[in-house]
Amino acid sequence: MAQAAAKEAPKETPGREVRVEISLDSHNRIVTKPEIFKVCKSKDQEVRWVLVDQQEHRFTVDFEANGSPFYEEQFGSDAPVSGLVRRDVLSGPKKYKYTVRLGSAVADPEGVVDP
Q1: Above 50 in pLDDT, residue 7?
Q2: Which fold has domain 14-114?
């Protein structure tokens, strides 16, 4: 019985990943769902940006305007997961603007960090 348990893969922490879907609407404007992501620092959550139903397979995400709540500032098709929120980031009302680029389309959604 102990051997069977040892071979099982570790289970993921429920709710650890916050999914942000990126798509284009009928006017070729970028849509992100949710419009404002929320990550919970105390739950060790991280963001995964996912391209949905698009022929263009490359996107970028840049935190430039007021900094990134994560250890990195740029994400994209090759590196779509944010990693954990930086230790020095306080939870609160600050909104982090970021830029999504998909082909020639550009959008500037936001994100927040909850306790």
Answers
A1: no
A2: Immunoglobulin-like (2.60.40)
